[in-house]
């Protein structure tokens, strides 16, 4: 897909720097929505000499939710962290192979990891709001770092409101935006982190077990949020919870000791998996 | 569920796999009852034995109760364990198979009732060997379909579906033969109508066995072959 880009000298930039403003549920254009947003090809990720991800290839469709499941230590989080160049932030690590986000090779020569992460947001297992900041400033923090030009005050407020609305948190915090983020419950803090990630309008958002530390009601809210996020962004979610993967995702990848065993439509994978190892894992006859 | 597979399961799943094993046993018990009722009904018909026919009728409540027990156990497993893949297909199949077996029991009762009415009019005896062949075929289909489901044998399930054509053509033959009898001798009309009903009930038992065969294929392979979806 040919797209107009503003390329800084010597650096490759992911096209469409600013995602379309999500006012309402946007109409899905078949031509763009059906093209994979994330393509991993022959991907290997190492910790020292140990390969945690082994020769993984898959294509996550745009504006859809892709879930990655598998037992502990199978390389799910490592694979996720390869999709926004977070893996390389750990010491003694390396990545081989190719990852394309919206047509741009993120490990290509001259591609900036910072620019990649601006377009590929990430939310972690435990809520990580900035503890000394207010709710408002938490959302604004990412914008301040990412913005190439400072936004006007009114523009900034609009963006904060929009991000909090997309994260399903606005109604609960609109009257106390200047309270400390730490005053929020765990589930609200996690949605605040999602709002912070959404504020810079990423094209792809990576969720690493986003409900692992939350109670069932907060989990349900995050799942509903993930379900609706697909209208505007591409979501890749790592989860331990198979039912969660079944509920929220369109496609599911099953990873086992670093290898991609099966990648299929979620409804097919959970009712009639093709690979006996997937069958064994999702029916609990494993390990 | 074999004990070996249950033992290999992680602790959280062991209880679930034990419950799946119990559900399978319940279904096996119900299968045995349905097969026994069908055998007894056919025997009562062929030997005009009222006593056996009455046993079929009085025993029907067992199958009704077993159907409810299987359904209850399956619904609880669905609600509490959120099963997936083959386990999910087995539980869904168990609900359908138990429903089919309950209806097999109803058809056995219908055949037993026909046997009683035919025994009341022994003077007009007509012999239709096709009925006996049909009964044998339908009964074999029922046994095979249940074996296919319990063993998750897709190949045997498909064979049962193919066998249904034979029973259907036997049913047509029975109809034509009885029609000939009725036209030739009006005194045979009442027993012939009774035997037509028996033929119809046997044909329905074969259809229900076909359903179970299709469920066995879905269980084994995850493929729907209902309504000739598979060429």
How would you describe this protein?
The complex is a heterodimer of chains A (287) and B (231). Chain A is of the alpha/beta class and 287 residues long. Chain A has a domain at 35-128 and 203-282: P-loop containing nucleotide triphosphate hydrolases (Rossmann fold). In chain A, 33% of the residues lie in helices and 23% in strands. A six-stranded mixed sheet of chain A has the order 6-7-8-3-9-10, with helices on both faces. The radius of gyration of chain A is 19 Å and the shape is globular. Mean pLDDT of chain A is 86; it is low at 1-33. In chain B, helix 2 (11-47) runs antiparallel to helix 4 (60-81). Chain B has 231 residues and is an all-alpha fold. Chain B has one domain (3-228): Methane Monooxygenase Hydroxylase, Chain G, domain 1 (Up-down Bundle), CATH 1.20.58.220.
Q: What is the succession of H and E elements of chain A?
A: HEEEHEEHEHHHHEHEHEEHH
Give the end-to-end Cα distance of chain B, rounded to a whole number of Å.
32 Å
At the first level of CATH, what is the class of the domain at 35-128 and 203-282 in chain A?
A: Alpha Beta
Q: Which fold does the CATH topology of chain B refer to?
A: Methane Monooxygenase Hydroxylase, Chain G, domain 1
Name the structural class of chain B.
mainly alpha
Uncertain spans of chain B, ≥5 residues at pLDDT below 50? 1-7
Query: C-alpha Rg of chain A, in Å?
Result: 19 Å
Note poorly predicted spans of chain A. 1-33
CATH-assigned homologous superfamily of chain B: Phosphate transport system protein phou homolog 2, domain 2
Major pleated sheet of chain A: 6 strands, mixed
Radius of gyration of chain B: 20 Å
Structural class of chain A: alpha/beta
Number of domains of chain B: 1
Task: Bin the helical content of chain B.
Answer: over 70%
Q: What general outline of chain B do the C-alpha atoms trace?
A: elongated
CATH architectural name of chain B: Up-down Bundle
Number of helical segments with 4 or more residues of chain B: 8
CATH superfamily of the domain at 35-128 and 203-282 in chain A: P-loop containing nucleotide triphosphate hydrolases
